[in-house]
Design brief:
264 residues; 9 strands; 8 helices; alpha/beta; single chain; binds NADP nicotinamide-adenine-dinucleotide phosphate; 44% helix
């Protein structure tokens, strides 16, 4: 099936690793033109230029911290100037804070909220008029199962995720009349830079392989499918939501979590 993404212009924040990098790759494979950012431009360029079929004519890479409105404004303006349109926006950039309530300092709470909210508010504000001018404007916010099912080991991240899910529903109502669809994907535990960093920093059994370590985590968290997900498994779902074929899907969320969510 043709997903009708050929020549569509999609902005992806956080494209240098994990979900963002897999998504950039899949979108280019679908014939889309892609603008992507991260804070570390060297890493972003190294990662994207190593993609199969990488075509610099269809890809814009730029340094941008999504917490900073002026940098986001410049990034979105550059994407529009380069490609002449913006049809889709994926707010993916981010990370989580593995700390319980008592161990989280107040400034860590604030910076966690800042990252989660600024990372959506700034790009949506900057891209809104361009998305409205598209005949298939769409926003996908990359969120987490934590939004519905808080994890005490990730106290601030869970709270911020819940607020972002709430905001995403507001954005769907607000932007819908402009023809812009807004949805979330709620991730469970996905094998990306985040978990690989935790594996490297593990303090316990250093003899454990990644496979043993991640299988133990999957068992501990009660993942129905018994394993972590892959960035590619997330990217496929985001690509489907970005497709004009999903034209009647807005204001909703899809779990990509192997069944870790216990809610119905
Ligand atoms: N992996 C999981 O299990 C999981 C679970 C739930 C939710 N998520 C969420 O899914 C999204 C993607 O995560 P991932 O696992 O693919 O992470 P990842 O592999 O660590 O990649 C994160 C990307 O975001 C960029 N980034 C981080 N902070 C940024 C900022 N302030 N401004 C611009 N770019 C920034 C990073 O590049 P720079 O560092 O160079 O900026 C990188 O390109 C994140 O929002 C994450 O919180 C992941």
């Amino acid at each position: 099936m043709d997903l009708e993404l050929t020549d569509r212009v999609i902005v992806v924040t956080g494209g240098s690793s994990g979900v963002g990098l897999a998504l950039v790759d899949d979108l280019l494979s679908c014939g889309a033109r892609v603008a992507t950012c991260a804070r570390d431009l060297d890493r972003l360029e190294a990662a994207t230029s190593a993609l199969d079929g990488h075509d610099p004519g269809r890809l814009l890479t730029m340094a941008c911290d999504v917490r900073l409105a002026d940098q986001v404004d410049r990034f979105i303006a550059a994407a529009h100037e380069r490609f002449g349109a913006i049809d889709g926006l994926v707010n993916n950039a981010g990370q989580s804070l593995m700390r319980g309530f008592a161990d989280t300092a107040f400034d860590e709470w604030m910076s966690e909220f800042e990252l989660k909210f600024a990372g959506v508010i700034h790009p949506v504000t900057a891209a809104r008029n361009y998305l409205a001018a598209s005949d298939a404007g769409v926003v996908v916010n990359v969120n987490a199962v934590l939004a519905r099912q808080p994890e005490p080991r990730l106290a601030a991240t869970s709270a911020a995720r819940a607020g972002l899910l709430n905001l995403t529903r507001t954005l769907a109502s607000d932007l819908g009349p402009e023809g812009i669809r807004v949805n979330s994907v709620l991730l469970g535990l996905i094998d990306t830079g985040q978990w690989r960093r935790r594996f490297v920093q593990r303090g316990d059994d250093l003899e454990q392989s990644w496979e043993e370590w991640s299988a133990a985590i999957a068992a501990d968290r009660g993942i129905t499918l018994g394993r972590l997900g892959t960035a590619r498994e997330v990217s496929y779902v985001i690509t489907m939501l970005l497709s004009p074929r999903a034209s009647y899907v807005t204001g909703t969320s899809i779990d990509v979590a192997g069944g870790v969510g216990r809610y119905v």
